Structures are given as structure tokens and as C-alpha cells.
């Protein structure tokens, strides 16, 4: 790669990062639908030409930001199994679960997105991406044949993301290590019965 190409590539990376950061900063102040491209470029200290050299619209910029986060999310999700052929879920050490570290390290970004009008888009992209890799990259040799693989993926990923988004909403009340430990406990917990709690009619 030539020196000029390297400089150009670095310039593109810097401008994209600046535009993403500008959009995020503006989204902490107002809804995405109210933000203009002019506001984004002025905040980033670039011109509209630079914006359109990288993106077709502000929606394209938003997609790039969410795609970048999602790719990081997938890398953290793969951490426990990417270097092994088989990993035993019941023997999975809590510290190998890196997904909570990803969200914690990007806590400011996720907090802003959680409070924004693009939250449904964020959840949908992450949900579909995680379901896709669980179906493509993981199989369970001892799985009950009566359990639908697709439904199992949907169920488990909804549960995981529900836990994570609750954690974000609580303003990261617990540490990543606590969440790692709790997730492992939840995965391995297999209740066989539950006691019903019936209120007395006098309490009604």
C-alpha cells in the first residue's frame, strides 16, 4: 500500500469516527429525527462534502454506527468458543463471557441509544445478528430432537438481550463480573418445581 493510500485511509477513518461521535453527541440532546446533516458536520468540524463522501444520508451514518457496535458485540459473544471445537456450557468460566465487558466499555454510547428514538432499530439489528450466528456457528449434539433449533435460538437471545438492556436501564448497577457470574448461574439453573404463593383473601 502506498503512503498516499495509507494517509487517505487514515483520513477516512478519522472523518467517519468524527461524524459518528458528532451524531451520538447530538442524539444525547435531541431525537434522531430532529437532527440535520448540517448540524452533524458543524459539530464534527467538517463540511457537507466530507459527509457525502462517506455517507448518503444521516440514516446511512446511523446504520454505520450501529453496525460497528454490532460487530464488536459479535466478537465479544464469540469469545468463549472461537478458539475451541467444543465447549462445555456447564464448565464455562464466568470470566470467559466477554459480552458484558463490551457493553460496559461502551456504556456512554449505549446509554444514549437506549434513551433515543432509534432504540427499536438497535435492538432489532443486534437481535437478528446474534440469532444468526447462534444458528450458523453453534450446534448441540445432545439436543432434544423435539426442541426446535430456531425457536431455541430466539428464546435464548431474547433472554440474553433482555438481561443486558435491563442492566443498561439500571445505569450499570452491577459490575460486568457480577453479571458474568449471574448469567452462568442462570444458564445452569434447572428448576424442577415452583411453589405458588397464594395471597389471603383478607390481603386483597
From TrEMBL:
- Domain of life according to the entry: Bacteria
Q: Which residues mediate DNA binding here?
A: 36-55
> Which GO terms label this protein's molecular function in UniProt?
DNA binding
Which ranges carry the HTH tetR-type domain?
A: 13-73
Name the InterPro entries for this protein.
Answer: Homeodomain-like_sf, HTH-type_Tx_Regulator, HTH_TetR, TetR_C_Firmicutes
Q: Does the keyword tRNA-binding apply?
A: no
Q: What's in the keyword line of the UniProt record?
A: DNA-binding
Coiled-coil regions listed: none
Q: Which SUPFAM superfamilies match?
A: Homeodomain-like
Q: What is this protein called?
A: TetR family transcriptional regulator
